[in-house]
TrEMBL record:
Organism this protein belongs to: Diaphorobacter ruginosibacter
UniProt-listed InterPro entries: AAA+_ATPase, ABC_transporter-like_ATP-bd, ABC_transporter-like_CS, ABC_transpr_LolD-like, MacB-like_ATP-bd, P-loop_NTPase
The protein, known as: ABC transporter ATP-binding protein
Keyword vocabulary terms for this entry: ATP-binding, Cell membrane, Membrane, Nucleotide-binding, Transport
GO molecular function: ATP binding; ATP hydrolysis activity; transmembrane transporter activity
Residue ranges annotated for the ABC transporter domain, each copy included: 8-224
GO CC annotation terms, alphabetical: plasma membrane
Amino acid sequence: MPPMPPLMRLRGLTRRYGESVVFGDVDLDVHPGEFIAVIGDSGVGKSTLLNCMAGLDHWDAGTVVHEGADLGAMDDRARAIWRRSHVGFVFQAFHVLPHLDVAQNVALPLVLLGQRDDGRVEKMLASVGLGGMGARLPQELSGGQLQRVAIARALIHRPPLLLADEPTGNLDPDTAARIMDLLIAQTREHHAALVLVTHAHSAAARADRTLRLTAGGMVNEPAAG
Ligand SMILES: Nc1ncnc2c1ncn2[C@@H]1O[C@H](COP(=O)(O)OP(=O)(O)OP(=O)(O)O)[C@@H](O)[C@H]1O
């Protein structure tokens, strides 16, 4: 059988600010359903790379291709439309909208895609441990609960690719461990690929593979132990 084509393929991806190269020559294949952890020194461009993969940032050389579609060839509008249906994004700072209640926050991707809820939001809230909390406002939630909302929102439209940028960075260690359990379990349940940027070795240890971003490209990080 021929090998499965990657969901997303990065080739020679390079990002500069003026004369200074943030990262260069990044090659990466993300396969359907796999969990990749990306680690690297502070400032090496992990968040920038993730934003490029989401089509939220631009790059200076190289390609990002998702299932044959070249993100670099799309204009901003086409990229936004692509992102809506194909990507879920979880940020360190939650990015939950304060004036919408929990259920409305989670339903947002469905609204943007013109899809019906069909009880999906309630089911999703229950599966992230927020059953019955749909009518609450974000200000009434803890940090861990806010990140559960963000995870539910990132997955509600069943995107094949979930990008998470330090999603537990603002949480205490116990809450962080529980949120990581949830993120991994939910990603697996939805058969999504997960690319996680993290400084936490405990989180990286749970990935199918760990890659280190360096100025010169992406290198395999040997498994610990
Ligand atoms: N507007 C800008 N102008 C110049 N350099 C910038 C700008 N924005 C970001 N940078 C630089 O780009 C680099 C990559 O930043 P990025 O946040 O992607 O790194 P990171 O690896 O995610 O860092 P951390 O682990 O600390 O979150 C940093 O060195 C940063 O100083």
